[in-house]
Specification:
This protein is of the alpha+beta class and about 100 residues long. Helices cover about 30% and strands about 35% of the residues. The protein has a single domain, classed as START domain (Alpha-D-Glucose-1,6-Bisphosphate, Chain A, domain 4).
């Protein structure tokens, strides 16, 4: 396994609204990327989600924590995908910020 990717995104939405927006963004991504992923699961327990994605026979796991003022995502990549770590971190940051934007309610 490569080093985990950790992304934090600040917000002023409160935990409940941030979680609602992130959950909606995950569902949208699941629908839009269904041809790419053979599995895309999000298991929410309170303000934490365990995520599992499988593409090209490679499993990616992540933990997502939603707090009142920040969202923290930690992604574990298989060795095969570790070369894409920086690119994946950038995409995660942009997509997380997009999901939390004001006006996305």
């Amino acid at each position: 396994m490569a080093q985990p990717i950790v992304v934090t995104v600040s917000h002023s939405l409160g935990a409940a609204e941030a979680q609602r927006r992130i959950a909606r963004g995950l569902e949208k991504g699941k629908t839009e990327l269904s041809a790419v992923f053979s599995a895309f699961e999000a298991d929410w327990k309170a303000n934490h989600a365990d995520l599992r994605l499988v593409a090209l026979h490679q499993q990616v796991t992540a933990g997502l924590d939603v707090f009142d003022d920040v969202v923290r995502v930690e992604v574990s990549l298989p060795w095969y995908l570790s070369a894409l770590q920086d690119k994946i971190a950038g995409v995660l940051k942009r997509q997380s910020e997009k999901a939390l934007q004001i006006g996305q309610g």
